[in-house]
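Box 3.1 A note on notation
Throughout this textbook, protein chains are presented in two layers. The first layer is the amino acid sequence; the second is a token string describing backbone geometry. Keep the layers aligned when reading.
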Amino acid sequence: MKIVDAKVIICCPGRNFVTLKITTEDGLYGLGDATLNGRELAVASYLSDHVVPLLIGRDARRIEDNWQYFYKGAYWRRGPVTMASIAAVDAALWDIKAKSLNTPLYQLLGGASRDAVLVYGHASGHDVEDTVKAVAQFQKSGYKAIRAQSGIPGLASTYGVHSGSGHYEPAEKDAPPENVWSSEAYMTFIPTLFARLRKEFGEELHLLHDVHHRLTPIEAGRVGKSLEPYHLFWMEDPTPAELQESFQLIRQHTTTPIAVGEVFNSIFDCQQLIQEQLIDYIRATVVHAGGISHLRRIANFAELYQVRTGCHGATDLSPVCMGAALHFDLSVHNFGIQEYMPHTSETDKVFPHAYSFRDGVMHPGDEPGHGVDIDEALAAKYPYQRAYLPVNRKSDGTMHNW
């Protein structure tokens, strides 16, 4: 089953996506997501200039060998651009293999370990009461797990807080906007939000929160401890994770579960965090962590230490990645939860898919492959538009983590 064609498709039906389409001599094709938010063209170039020429003539069935070829053969290993490119190849090859056997992808990953995939949605508001209303709306829509974010008094803008009535998309056209941040204001405010949410919604609803790398380890420990009475499902990205041992300090001060890893691109980014049980959920993704093949390695390693998966699933991942992720989620034994932000109607039309949401859970569907396709003619009507995520500064002007 030789590969005879591979091409990179870039489109922007509301936001930018990079898709790799691989076609075999049998006429089968598979799709892989290669989107890297704010650096999409870097991955597109890596694929077009360096990966696609090497794909032609290779056996599409040799998924593991192809993965190692593009990982070890490049010499310059890891990094978000390289791993997103490898991920696209990997997902497309799994898609082809499942299609060739006329079976949904999860059946090739060991079959279903559960009936459906628990997902969480994003509720936010400009203040506490707005967030309460948003959580109520998500609960009414069937969500059993909801991430709650709120505007912080004194700050003009806050990560994760919806600025309009449409889909939440933090990336903005042209130059990145600059936000102002105060960790002190945040740490004082955030326990009041979850006290109010528990008072309103009781104890059964799963509540999650994203700190978004904003705190030092000791600050994160303080926030985690202050949130313990409200038993969050998790506190996400409490501090930047480049220094993995820093999470030891957080663990010393709180039992609030910790989730991290949406920016990780290999097992080495989370090795110490998992091995020393410094986190409870690993949030690495199909597209950013080298594809299904490598994400399975991360999950298998995490299972040894009772760390569960909680894959990133915001709209900076295309429906192709969401479809692949749901097959992974359905199959992996130590699954925890899946983030789910619905795409725009324009995106859904460009990427028709078999996956579905109902009553707080999702299923990838039983179409052969990962169940997501692309309408290339429609995609061509949405050309790339440069966009960047915001940058963050403290109130005194110091650059900070966004």
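The mean pLDDT is 96. The CA atoms of residues 78 and 389 lie 22 Å apart.
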